[in-house]
Amino acid sequence: MTSLVRTAALAVTLSVASIGALPIGAHAAAVDAKAVIANYEAIAHAMYQDAHASAVTLKSAVRALAKTPSAKNLKAARVAWIAARPAYQQTEALRFGNAIVDDWEGRVNAWPLDEGLIDYVDAGYGTEADHNPLYTANVIANKKIRIGATMVDASKIDKKLIAELHEAQEVEANVSIGYHAIEFLLWGQDLNGTGPGAGNRPHTDFDTRKCTNGNCDRRAAYLVAATDLLVDDLAEMVANWAPGGPARAELEAKGPEGGLATILTGIGSLSYGELAGERMKLGLILHDPEEEHDCFSDNTHNSHYYDQVGMVALASGRYVRSDKSVIKGPGILDLAAAKDPAAAKEMTAALATTSAKMQVMKDTADKGTMAYDQMIGEGNEAGNKIVQDVIDGLVAQTRATERVVTALNLSIQIEGSDSLDNPGTVGKN
Q: 298-313, pLDDT tens digit by residue?
């Protein structure tokens, strides 16, 4: 864990007390489903506004780096990237039930990525992969890229080009845009395995006068284009959740029961299949640092932590914005408390327990004791336990969510994961 990552992570830390203290029941007398959904929509809009604002700050830092490459400006861009993650990660519980979010999400947060599509890679990466014909296409180094039978003109790196490359040939690992493409360009590959340290790309990779690793002008152009596109994509989602926007219309068309089911689907599916399963248990089973969410920057602990912060916000109806102002209204836990106090109390306790376990993971990484990729390393019993404790908390949180679903007489489908449901099959294909 580098001091840069620790410093930036600490700068955006929220108090665990604000996570654990869920004020349910305060609105119980007056709460109804429509009020819960309306507050959920207001929080969603604010979350994306905050994510967009932090991406605009990142855009300024990236443009400063591209204009004047220096160690100082590279560090500033990295700090801005890390500072941009908490606001976005808190939106992730809006996925899995809102189709308009699910259809869009891959443009901003797809992972893992085959970084050889974008830029140079270490020799140990290899030169080809059966799953991906574009495994080492290296668009930064090549002004023409063959995609299947088509020769693509890549002489000008701009938003249009990199958007067209995204998931080319229907290969999910061809991630050419979004937070993680930007992360790779800022840090480069993390070649430390489960040892200490993040990626260490030099600022001279963007310096046309003292260029290292070639094509510095094209690398800077790619970084600028990817960041500009991220800002555009987030602006689109801000508009979708604005009053009268299509995301609100889509949610309200489901009716009150459908809206409540959407809220709980997002919390349950992010808790279980996505976060506990694919993002955490899979990496722990394989002890593979490539299976960590923010793998180039060693920021994975923060991404997981702020996913949980977002789930707590949407469950409780209370969101702390980036400027520390608070949006507060009736949450689904308030509605559950009016219907079945025991179920609401159980989910509240489960959220608080998971949050406390997340805090242990975050503190361990922030203090430089152990980065997330070290925690999942083979033979690291203490680190493995920290991660497994979070997974166990998330699974219990899911079960409590399901009991609230029953209490509210709803029906939802929670995303599964082989890593949790069929762990014996993992890594055998």
A: 999 999 999 999 999 9
What is the C-alpha separation between 389 and 40, in angstroms, rounded?
Answer: 29
Q: What's the pLDDT at 57? A: 98
Checking phi first, is residue 243 left (phi over 0); if not, alpha (psi -120 to 50) or beta? Answer: beta
What are the structure tokens assigned to 425, written together? 């099959």
- Residue 24 CB-half CA count within 13 A: 29
> Residue 382 has what DSSP assignment?
H
CA distances 241 to 43, 47, 96, 180, Å, are 9, 10, 16, 24
Residue 214: pLDDT band with limits 50, 70, 90: very high
Q: At what angle do helices 341-366 and 332-339 cross, to 10 degrees?
A: 140
Least Cα distance to 301 among 5, 4, 18, 75 occurs for 5
Greater confidence, 8 or 164? 164
- Report d(CA 178, CA 309) in Å as an integer: 22
Type and span of the H or E element at 256: helix 255-269
C-alpha torsion sign, points 26, 28, 29, 33:
positive
pLDDT per position as a tens digit, 348-358: 999 999 999 99
